[in-house]
Write a structure and sequence with these properties.
The structure holds 2 protein chains of 2 kinds. Chain A is 42% helix and 27% strand. By secondary structure, chain A is of the alpha+beta class. The model of chain A has no long low-confidence stretch (mean pLDDT 93). The chains are: A alpha+beta, B alpha/beta. Chains A and B meet through helix 1 of A and loops of B.
């Protein structure tokens, strides 16, 4: 599925993450900035990627600004961003 | 002979400042201090290089020191605490010679035993007379106690008092006495009042912090140490200060009258003094205006030198009489070693201060910390930097449960009996990792940029550079 409108979810508070999803260039691209990049960078990427896979998103650009969110938070924020992007698309 | 000189430059010249010397500073003006920067700037103008700086703490306001390190004015640095700004530059390797971290008790001991030889001590004095008697309770830059400057003034070859409020002789009380002062100089401002002390110290409203504080107070209740004559120290930050909020009703209920509160003093401790929970406050540093006013007005609020506060080399110090101390941590490991020097990426952002002195002295040293902070578990296999040895730490309190040092069997038994949620420390680690996931190890880093000296002068760890 392709994302054709951008949407965001989350916050820049500590222990949270801000997920911004926007139209891609033919594939999925994930850019991550995190306060725990060294310790959790790979785990953050795979969490976000797995939510994208669940929604069968194959064309999108995702920006993750992570302030130390745990995995369930990351997944929830990503899911909400996707749903917002898809909802706007349906209008 | 008149000690009063008209400019800082003149004082520095008369004191004989030259390249290669060691100069010292104290940190009661905290993040509002102008004096350290003022002196280094003047030293640079004088063409002086290769200075050793012994500062009891370095705050973000002291960031100009980074340039003085780069241009060779400062080549050696010793301190008990370093804020994140200068800490980052040091961790990135701006200085060739490793920084020496000491403790608030270790530093005066090193000065008094001659291990640190200070050529010129610079004393930032909120008020002083022309002979150099000085205190911190009057003047527009009032900071309260001047405890950290006492050994410096006494042991330095030359002592320069820098003040912005000149008072008639003889000024009393004299936290710094004229007997130790060579020169006095008046400047416009020694600091920015806003950065020196906070207006009031607020207790955290974070529910996790409050839960931790409540549990820590319950640990004290059931520890067996809460009885008449009880003595107590806590910090100003996070959950630490909130412990007092929960301790008060427990002391009231049990009818316990405390002997003294120690340390950096907040108005919360001042209220406890006024309300009769403690007989005295022993004060090495004031954190807020309420504490400054109390030190000025209340004869039971007593200023102590850093040496009397915490030195391991004196015949006895306040920390040796301490029952309970509440301390923070960035990491605690399975052996109860505590890190307060470096953050999760290995950057310097703190220091022992009085952490390891009070942990060693107190009968009950309690570490309060959330189970994890920004996805990073507090309990780790091995701390990145060993600031305080685990052998001196008794209890770790988190919001989900507590862990007791296995060496303290009797204490553990009492706390279990008191109904506290006691876990093995590795269980707390697992509990955290179930929520956060397991962090990948970060590398120890490159060359040594700092050495951590324990209060007895032994090196207990090294801090390495991070790119």
């Amino acid at each position: 599925m392709k994302i054709s409108k951008s949407a965001a979810a989350g916050s820049m508070e500590s222990n949270d993450a801000m997920i911004l999803i926007e139209p891609g260039e033919g594939d999925v691209e994930i850019a991550i900035e995190s306060v725990v990049m060294r310790q959790f960078g790979k785990q953050i990427e795979s969490a976000v990627k797995s939510v994208l896979d669940e929604y069968e998103i194959d064309d999108a650009r995702v920006w993750v600004r992570d302030k130390g969110a745990v995995e369930c938070t990351l997944r929830a924020r990503t899911e909400t961003a996707i749903l917002r992007a898809l909802k706007e698309e349906a209008k | 002979m008149s000690k009063l000189v008209s400019t800082l430059r003149e004082a520095m010249e008369k004191a004989g400042l030259k390249s290669g010397m060691t100069i010292s500073f104290h940190h009661h003006l905290r993040n509002g201090d102008y004096v350290l920067n003022m002196v280094l700037e003047e030293a640079e103008k004088m063409g002086v290089r290769d200075l050793g700086v012994e500062a009891s703490s370095i705050f973000d306001v002291h960031a100009p020191i980074i340039d003085h390190i780069r241009n060779g004015v400062v080549t050696r640095l010793g301190t008990n605490y370093m804020g994140a700004k200068v800490g980052k530059a040091i961790t990135q390797g701006v200085m060739d010679t490793p920084v020496i971290f000491r403790t608030h008790g270790g530093r005066p001991n090193a000065i008094e035993t001659g291990k640190i030889k200070i050529d010129i001590a610079f004393v930032a004095a909120p008020c002083a007379d022309a002979a150099g008697n000085a205190n911190g309770i009057y003047g527009k830059s009032a900071c309260g106690s001047m405890g950290y400057a006492v050994s410096d003034a006494k042991c330095a070859q030359k002592t320069i008092v820098i003040t912005d409020t000149l008072m008639p002789y003889p000024l009393s009380p004299a936290s710094i006495e004229e007997t130790n002062v060579d020169f006095v100089v008046k400047v416009d401002e020694i600091g920015d009042a806003k950065g020196i002390v906070s207006g009031t110290t607020q207790i955290t409203r974070d529910p996790v912090g409050l839960k931790i504080a409540q549990t820590a107070a319950d640990v004290i209740r059931h520890s067996g140490y809460l009885e008449n004559g009880f003595s107590f120290q806590t910090g100003a930050g996070g959950a630490s200060l909130a412990v007092t909020k929960f301790l008060k009703p427990i002391m009231r209920e049990k009818g316990v009258k405390g002997s003294f509160g120690l340390g950096g003093i907040t108005s919360y401790m001042v209220d406890m003094l006024k309300e009769g929970y403690f007989e005295k406050l022993m004060d090495v540093q004031c954190f807020d205006l309420g504490a400054v006013a109390s030190l000025r007005e209340n004869p039971n609020h007593i200023e102590v030198s850093a040496s009397r506060y915490a030195s391991p080399g004196v015949k006895s110090a306040c920390v040796d009489h301490l029952d309970t101390v509440i301390l923070g941590a960035t990491q605690v490991d399975l052996d109860f070693n505590v890190n307060v020097h470096t953050d999760s990426n290995g950057f310097i952002m703190g220091g022992s201060g009085g952490h390891s002195d009070t942990a060693a002295g107190a009968k009950l040293a309690i570490i309060v910390a959330p189970l994890y902070r920004a996805r990073l578990p507090i309990v780790v296999d091995r701390v990145h930097t060993k600031s305080t040895p685990g052998s001196t730490v008794d209890v770790l309190v988190t919001q989900r449960g507590i862990a007791v040092n296995p060496e303290r069997e009797e204490l553990k038994r009492r706390l279990v009996k008191g109904g506290l949620p006691v876990f093995d420390i590795s269980e707390l680690k697992n509990l955290a990792e179930r929520v956060t996931g397991t962090p990948e190890e970060i590398s120890k880093g490159g060359r040594v940029v700092a050495k951590v000296e324990y209060r007895d002068g032994t090196i207990i760890d090294e801090i390495r550079s991070v790119e």
